[in-house]
Amino acid sequence: MRPSGRDLSEMRPVSIETGVLKHAEGSCLVKMGDTHVLCTATIEDRVPPFVKGTGLGWVTAEYGMLPRSTGSRMRREAAVGKQGGRTVEIQRLIGRALRAGTDRVALGERQITVDCDVIQADGGTRCAAITGGWVALRLAVGKLMAAGDIVSDPLPDPVTAVSCGIYAGQPVLDLDYPEDSAAGVDGNFIMTGAGRLIEVQMSAEGATFSRDEMGTLLDLAAKGVGELAARQREATGA
């Protein structure tokens, strides 16, 4: 039995509220159980120097956790003077994932920055950030298309992410913190709504896993991604 009482293949309750910030070109608050992430997208008419002159757009991301997003207060990284390794790794992952799902030719030579701020954490923050980040990106791109600034849709399919793992010897979908902290195997699966893989992060956390078990986790992830992509389309009207 999972600590939450969910079935092995059951997601946590998911909600996506859009338009939560006045000034951002795209914004949403995504909730996956007790993990809540605020995502915004900002359009800029510039690109990094290594992209300038190529005609390609650029999508990048920043990620952070608020001091009381967890059980005890964390110091703000700005107060420490540098970002932690985990933060850097996660925001690079978010940026890679969203770029992989973007037609950068269609986007044109502009940059969209997706900011993901965790206001409450209960496992799966990077997955929630990618899922909500795509919604914010979709809304921002919709404004570019409505204004006639771009004519071809650069976001043909949702990009979403979900965690899976082996907890108490059983493969489970969408780990919350009690499961994540005790899982023998932990994985994050980033996929398109059509089920194409973008990135898979899997590691043994005290117990090895077989190829068959990995296949089972991939099947669970595909189920979860399908459900999340439907929520993304519903939220954005895509």
TrEMBL record:
Signal peptide: none annotated. Keywords: Nucleotidyltransferase, RNA-binding, rRNA processing, Transferase, tRNA processing, tRNA-binding. It comes from the Bacteria. InterPro entries: ExoRNase_PH_dom1 (IPR001247), ExoRNase_PH_dom2 (IPR015847), ExoRNase_PH_dom2_sf (IPR036345), PNPase/RNase_PH_dom_sf (IPR027408), Ribosomal_Su5_D2-typ_SF (IPR020568), RNase_PH (IPR050080), RNase_PH_bac-type (IPR002381), RNase_PH_CS (IPR018336). Residues 10-140, 157-224 form the Exoribonuclease phosphorolytic domain. It catalyses: tRNA(n+1) + phosphate = tRNA(n) + a ribonucleoside 5'-diphosphate. SUPFAM superfamilies: Ribonuclease PH domain 2-like, Ribosomal protein S5 domain 2-like. HAMAP family: RNase_PH. Homohexameric ring arranged as a trimer of dimers. Belongs to the RNase PH family. PANTHER family: EXOSOME COMPLEX COMPONENT (PTHR11953), EXOSOME COMPLEX COMPONENT RRP41 (PTHR11953:SF0). NCBIfam families: RNasePH. Phosphorolytic 3'-5' exoribonuclease that plays an important role in tRNA 3'-end maturation. Removes nucleotide residues following the 3'-CCA terminus of tRNAs; can also add nucleotides to the ends of RNA molecules by using nucleoside diphosphates as substrates, but this may not be physiologically important. Probably plays a role in initiation of 16S rRNA degradation (leading to ribosome degradation) during starvation. This is Ribonuclease PH. The lineage of its organism: Bacteria, Pseudomonadati, Pseudomonadota, Alphaproteobacteria, Rhodobacterales. The gene is rph.
